[in-house]
Amino acid sequence: MSEARVAPSLRRRLVVRLLGLAAVLAIILFIAVRFSAETASEATLDAVLGVATASIADDLRSGEDGAQVTLPAETFSMLAAMGEERIFYRILIGGTTMTGYDDLPLPRDTPTAVAPVFYSRSYREADLRLAAVSRNLIIDSRPATALVIVGQTREGQRVIAQQLANRAAMLGLFVFLLAIPASLVAATSLLRPLDRLAEAMARRGPRDLRPVRHPVPEELAPLIGALNSFIARLKSTLAQTETFIAEAAHHIRTPLATLRSEVELALRLAKDEPMRQRLRRLLRTVDEGSRSAGQLLDHATVLYRAEQQVFADVDLGAIARGLVDRYRTTADLKDIRLTLDKPAGAVPVTGDAVLLEAALRNLIDNAIKYSAEEAEIHVSLAISEQTAIFRCEDEGRGLDGAVDSKLRGRFQRGRNVEDVVGSGLGLTIVAEAVEAMGGSFSLAARPEGGTCATLTMPLAAKS
Amino acid sequence: MSNLHKAQLGTVRLSANACQRLLRLAALTSAMLLGIVSQTASAFDIEAERRFGDPNATRSIDVLSTTDINVFSPVIEGFIAARPDIAVNYIVASSQEVFNAIETDRAAVDVVISSAMDLQMKLANDGRARALPAGILEGRPAWARWRDTLVAVAQEPAVLLVARKALDGGLPMPRSRRDVIALLRDHPDRFKGRIGTYDPKVSGAGYLFATQDAQLGETFWRLAEVMGRLDTRLYCCSSDMIEALLSGELLLAYNVLGSYSRKDDLYREKVILVEPEDFTVTLLRTALIPQEAKNPGDGGVFLAYLLSPAGQSLVREAAGLPLIDPRVYAEKPHLRPIRLDPGLLAQLDTMTRKRFLEEWQAAMEQP
Q1: A73 and B215: CB-CB below 8 Å?
Q2: Do A64 and A36 share a domain, yes or no?
Q3: Which of A214, A353, B69, B97 is the most buried (most CB within 10 A)?
Q4: Is A119 on the interface with B (CB under 8 A)?
């Protein structure tokens, strides 16, 4: 299977995006506070400046020789109080500067008596905020328009706005720093269902084709749906294949049995020695075919049941006992001594009785098949901690250096077995059956000659 | 405002001493015009000028001040002793001339010290002063400085001087303006024509005191009415009022700069100094470094010395000027320092000034 192309880690991408968001939020906070602090304080200070200017305009009155005014010192003091501001003013009547700074900038719009006009200008190397108020006077029995302009620097306001903004920036930085662990935690918790799913998938056995029932977040549901439908398709394909093999094997076995009895009959009737030899070879070929068909059927059964995973508590001891009893006759034909050594009580394991029976049967069958006449086969069952250990030791031809893992491949046989009928499926059946039930199987050469097949199964949990 | 100096010449009621002073000033002015005392090329009127320190010193500063040379020289001598490498050219001019020198003539002096707070404030507000070197403003109380351009170097209460013989016959000692009003009302014959105060039309300090008085309490206008009725004499300067008190010409002088009080026994025998308990307006002598300063760094060094403990003790002991010290206000709660802020600009306004002086004139000249 080829490795999937690996995109950047989801966790890293999530953390980077969250941090980016936090940084943007911090900057927005800084700008927003700076802006709103400036706007709010400007509105407040404008109101004060407007009232101060209007009060000066109110004090304007016509005297004996033109207009009269007394500038209120207190008002100037107050306007200058915040941040020791600089104050500039100008009073015009009918467009002529009466007093104050005669070059103080005029407003663009003409103010009315009701609403002052505010504007900002640069004057004498200072940034001024100015308010202008106009008022109508009667001077020398003629109406005249007076314009009062008062300007102040706003350094104190700027300092305070800057301080507020700095505080907001600190807050933003704090939020950003806080966001680092928070986004790590968030990314981890967001990705936890994915991690769990990956873990659950990794835990599955290679033949576990049950649909995924693991609870997943809504967003992963389509993926799981697709995966499950994929599994279902795979399963149905496999099932079809296995059913086909089983049926094929079954259909072959029946005519083979008929063929065998016909060949046996022909052998009995044949007098001609070359013909008899030919018939014997035919009989042997038929046997091989029949056995292969049987093993194929067995293998299909094992695959099917391994997939079903319907397990119960089974007494391994009883299965071993039954099999040894069943094979005694076969062993006796070759004068092989078949012995069983097992604990007195039951050896309960969790598994499928049919699978266990198939595994054990194949091991005992192999041992008998590859043993010479008058040899000894020792079958033993033991309990070690939480596992049941089944061993089948023979004095046969051994493995001839073949590796266990190779032998359990489908249709693989050792190099030293040409004279014995076999399909190459026996060890495959054993390994697949045992591994489907969480057990293990190994094959080793015995130092004194012969082979030791070891099969372990976890003991059933005590209820 | 700029024609204040000319107004001095045209003032109607000037004392004899004031006239002498004017003559002296005129002499000095002509001397300057002749180039005798002319180190600083300038268009403004200089009253006096003296160079302190090593004549060959490579570094020198020009200090333009309203304080008389003999009052301030101990402080400058102290500075020369501390920094012999810097020579000081000390120039004295009236407060209005000091203002004109900086505002109009752009005189290239390094330090400006003036008792006219309002004019100094206008210079600072209008951007004619440069930022003082860092460190000078450190530890200065907020009321004794403005922004980073203006700093107070001394403070002077405006006091009431009473001749001892004015109280002959067991008259009560006046402690407040109310007392003064009562005293003058009860004894118009004794005080008629023998009261003196600043002429606010002529004197910048006098105008400042009068406007502050008017702002701080209503008693001022009542007092002005009473003083007007008793033919109060108007003076240009504190020293003239003190001389008139000593000569017996005056019995009572209102709003006199306390620092001009002499310390000799004759003076103490004849004159009682009263700081009115309702409030005593206190003026701040302020210093700034103008934009055109040629040597602002050494100007800053000079100001730093002036504000150092050594400089301040000379200011107090040798020059007799009270210090900028917040503790003074704890001891004398009646002292009201004139607020050093743009509020001063309001009184400086020509229309406001015209209106105030009209009121004053009306109080002084009663039918």
Answers
A1: yes
A2: yes
A3: B97
A4: no
